[in-house]
Amino acid sequence: MGQAFALCFSRKVGKENITVTDIVPEKRNLAVEMGIAFASDIKFLADTSELVIIAVKPKDAKSVLEKLKDYKGILVSIMAGAKIEDIEGIVGKDKKIVRVMPNIAVAVGSGVMAITDNGKLTEGEREKVEEIFLSCGSLYRIDENLFDPFTALAGSGPAYILAFLDGLALAGVHQGFQYNQALKIAIDTVIGSAKLLKEFSQNPNEIITKVTSPAGTTIEGLKFLEAKGFKGIVMECIEKTAEKAKKLKK
Ligand SMILES: NC(=O)c1ccc[n+]([C@@H]2O[C@H](COP(=O)([O-])OP(=O)(O)OC[C@H]3O[C@@H](n4cnc5c(N)ncnc54)[C@H](OP(=O)(O)O)[C@@H]3O)[C@@H](O)[C@H]2O)c1
Question: Is the pTM of this model over 0.85?
Answer without folding.
Answer: yes
